[in-house]
Amino acid sequence: MKLSEKAKTSPIVSLTPLIDVVFILLIFFMLVSQFMQLQKQNVPLSATEEVSVIDSNSLSIGIIKNETSNAISYRVNSMEMSWLQIDVYLQENKVAEVLLMPEANISLQTFITVKESLYNLGIKKINSEFIGYEIN
């Protein structure tokens, strides 16, 4: 007596339970996660925007790079100063806000170093205006 073999059927995998589990995990992590509180940075919307009027508690610092000697110089309220002079000025005067204006040929590292140095000197409100940068 010959027995007939049953045809093997491949198991059917249903994706519905998998999708349900993924959505439940997504909802769970969205509910229990804590979101970071980011500080907002004032950024001018256009390069043609005029610089705001500087009051007695504010200071405007331009970062300039000399093309021939690659030396960095600073222009404080339209007066050329060294960083040491800026340091002394900030210690002698109560400055609450600084507008930092690097030119286009200033490296990002130089900008960050100046910004951190100002923060370490006690200036907590530092705004930036980028001069001569092109948005691609």
From TrEMBL:
Q: Name one GO molecular function term.
A: transmembrane transporter activity
Q: Look up the domain of life of the source.
A: Bacteria
Which GO CC annotations does the UniProt entry carry? plasma membrane
Membrane topology label: Single-pass membrane protein; Single-pass type II membrane protein
Set out the biological process GO terms recorded for this chain's protein. Answer: protein transport
Chief subcellular location? membrane
Q: Keywords assigned by UniProt?
A: Cell membrane, Membrane, Protein transport, Transmembrane, Transmembrane helix, Transport
Q: Name one Pfam family in it.
A: ExbD
Cell location: Cell membrane
- Which parts of the chain span the membrane according to its record? 12-32
Q: Which family does it belong to?
A: Belongs to the ExbD/TolR family.
Checking PANTHER family in the record gives:
EXBD MEMBRANE COMPONENT OF PMF-DRIVEN MACROMOLECULE IMPORT SYSTEM (PTHR30558)
Q: What is this protein called?
A: Biopolymer transporter ExbD
Higher taxonomy: Bacteria, Pseudomonadati, Pseudomonadota, Gammaproteobacteria, Alteromonadales
